Amino acid sequence: MMNETSHTTLNTPYLLTTHREPIVYMNPTEILRKYFGYENFRGKQLEIIEHVIAGGHALVIMPTGMGKSLCYQIPAIAHQHRAAADQQRGKNLSLVISPLIALMKDQVDSLMARGIDATFINSSLDRREREFRYGGVGQGNYDLLYVTPERFRKPEFLEVISRREINLLAVDEAHCISQWGHDFRPDYTRLAEIREQIGNPPTIALTATATPEVQRDIVTQLGLRSDEIKNFHEGINRPNLELRVEHVWGDEEKLKQIITTCDEIRGCGIVYFTLIRTLLEFSERLDKASIPHLIYHGELERQYRRKVQDWFMTEPDHLVLATNAFGMGVDKEDIRYVIHADIPGSMESYYQEIGRAGRDGKPSKCVLLYDENDLNTQIEFMRWSNPDGEFYQRVFDYLQRETENINAFGIEWLREKLHHKQRHDRRLESALLMLDRYEAFDGSLNPLQINEVFELPEKLADPAAADEKLRRDQMKLLALVQYVKHEGNRKAYIHEYFGLPYEE
C-alpha cells in the first residue's frame, strides 16, 4: 500500500494538557506505524488526515486501492487517544456511513485484528446481535461504528446514537449521495439532516469516481457550502495499468481473447459479465477448455458467495468469472488482469472495476472486449433501471389495492400482473427498490412483504425527472462507447471525462 515515493515527513506529536501534567499522544505517523504497519503515508493522505483531525471538512477523490479508508480511520484513532488523555473514553464516537454491507465486516474484522475497537450494525445481523451492539454503543463501547444510511430510519438506533458525541462523520462511496452519481441511494440525500441530528461534526466524504458535477452535488447534499469543505483530489492516473480495447464479433472471439489473456498473464484475474446466463455459458466453455476458474453472481447462495471470495483472496492465481457485484468487498493487491467480457454501463463503473487491478503497483492489464451487439443489453438494462412515472404509479396502485395477494403469492404474482408475457422485464425490481429507498411502504423486499403503504414519492411520479435520469444514463453509456472508439490516449480521455488534467 505504501511505496518508496511516499510522503516521509514525520509530523509533530500532539500535546494535551490535563490538570496534572502534559500528556503526549500518538501523532498520525505513529498511529500508521503502530496499528497499520506502514512506515510512511503516500500522496495527500497525511494532509487530509491532519485537516480532518483539526476539525475541517474534506471531500476526497482517490483511486481505488490507494488508501482512502486510512483518511478517516487514523483521525478516529487519534480522537480516541485524545479522549483517553482527557479521561473521556467512551464519550466520543466516529461514525462511518457506507452502502456496502459486505465491505463493513471485512473492514471491522481488519480493525479489530489491529486492536482497534470497531463494529458495524446492519441488516446482516440477527435481532439479538443487533440489540447487543446497540447496547454497546449506548454504554460507550466502540471507537468506530459502521452503518448504512438506511439505519437512520430506525428510532432505536437514533436513541442510542444520541448518547454519544460524534466527533467525526465519514461518508464512504460518496458518489451515492448525488442523483447524478452511478449508484444513487435516496437515503444518502438525508445526510444534511443526519449531520444536523448528530451535531454537525467534522465530515469527510470519500469516493474513487466523481465528475465535477457530482462533486458539487455531494457538497450540497451534505448541507455544506463550497467554501466550508476542502477538496482533495488525488487524480485518477494509475501508471501501472495497461488499458486495452479488443474489438470482437461473437462469443467465440471473446472466448479466444479470454483464454489468450489468461495464458499470457500468470496470476489472479477477474472477468466481468453483465448477464448471469452469459457468465454461466462461458464457465461451461472454460470447463471444456480445462481452464480452472471460480464463478460469482447474485443468484448464488450468500454463504457460497462468501466462500468464493475467501478462495480468491487466500489462494494464488485464481480466475473468477463475475458480475459487477464482485470486487466491492475485495481488497486484493495482486490482481494482474481485469477483463470486461461486456461493455459496462458507464465510465464510472468501468473505472471503478479496472481499479481493482494492480493495487500493489506492479504492471497489470485491463482488457475491454467490445462487441457492438452488447450495446443492446446495456440499453435494455437502462430501460429496466429507469421506470417511468406511469409504471411507478401502476406498481404503487398494486401495493395499495392488492396487499393481501402480494403477501400471499409474492413477487412472481405481481410480475405476472404487470408484465404478462414479458417475464424477463426487470422494471419491477427497480421500482420496488426505489419505493423502498424512498420509504413509500413499510415491509421487506426479499421476500416481498407489505405491512403498510404510505404515499407515492412525487419525484418518482414526475415524468420530467424520469426522462432526465434516463438521458443522463444514456450519455454515460455514450461516453464509454466514445472511449472504446477513441484513437488517442485512452488514459487522457478518462481524465478529461472526470474533469482532470493529464500528464504522461
Estimate percent helicity.
40-55%
How many structurally independent domains? 3
Oligomer: single chain
- Write the CATH homologous superfamily of the largest domain: P-loop containing nucleotide triphosphate hydrolases
Low-confidence stretches: 1-10, 12-23
Radius of gyration: 24 Å
Give the rounded overall mean pLDDT: 88
Please write the CATH class name of the largest domain.
Alpha Beta
The neighbouring-strand order within the major sheet is 5-6-4-7-8-3-9
Approximate strand percentage: 15-25%
Largest sheet, described in full? Answer: 7 strands, parallel
Protein model, in words:
Helix 11 links the parallel strand 12 and strand 13. The protein has 19 helices and 17 strands. Helix 2 runs parallel beside helix 3 and helix 14 runs antiparallel to helix 15. The radius of gyration is 24 Å and the shape is globular. The protein has three domains: 220 residues, P-loop containing nucleotide triphosphate hydrolases (Rossmann fold), CATH 3.40.50; 137 residues, Rossmann fold; 79 residues. It is 43% helix and 17% strand. It is of the alpha/beta class and 504 residues long. The strands form four sheets. A seven-stranded parallel sheet has the order 5-6-4-7-8-3-9, with helices on both faces. Strands 10-15-14-11-13-12 form a six-stranded parallel sheet, with helices on both faces. The two termini are 22 Å apart.
